[in-house]
Amino acid sequence: NAGVTQTPKFQVLKTGQSMTLQCAQDMNHEYMSWYRQDPGMGLRLIHYSVGAGITDQGEVPNGYNVSRSTTEDFPLRLLSAAPSQTSVYFCASSPGRTWEQYFGPGTRLTVT
Amino acid sequence: GIQVEQSPPDLILQEGANSTLRCNFSDSVNNLQWFHQNPWGQLINLFYIPSGTKQNGRLSATTVATERYSLLYISSSQTTDSGVYFCAVKETSGSRLTFGEGTQLTVNP
User: Fold this and answer.
1) From the CB of residue A80, how many other CB atoms can be counted at a distance below 10 Å?
2) Chain B residues within an 8 Å CB radius of A96
3) Mapping DSSP to helix (H, G, I), strand (E, B) and coil, where does residue B41 land?
4) Is A101 within 8 Å of B97 when comparing Cβ atoms?
5) Above 90 in pLDDT, residue B19?
């Protein structure tokens, strides 16, 4: 099993550009989540999904969209990038309501 | 929402020393996890421990849910133990994990 995979590993965007961060898992986990980590801080939840077709907002959802059309994939879309979205983004999956999280390797995003 | 406090914020050890990291939380939880973020940024699951005690090699963890704290013990520390240790909890009535701000551990040779 590859576990949770994320692409790209690094990305630089200009203010106003849009892009999609990809996340996939091959563990047949129901739950998937996106977090951001800013310097010196813990992780904050952006959006999450409890199954295909079901998504909900986390703590810091503004400026981001998600969809979950399959169990395996959970892309995160930045609609119009802003410098405040410079961060490291982690995708995670969980087998169910326990929220026992398994993390991907992260995407480091810089918005100039 | 639930508050999660980790202590100490920073810890510097010599190789071979033992240490205890603490996580306090403000409400009842049904999930508590410890993670190690290594210097390359990778988040590694250490323990899923909403209650009780678990051990994995040199690491062990104890959660006393009724008193709202968890402890992570590292024995005979090695330089590869360096990094940030995060505690994350999910309120029993909630639907997401909340992370503490972490303990930065540096193990010197």
Assistant:
1) 11
2) none
3) coil
4) yes
5) yes
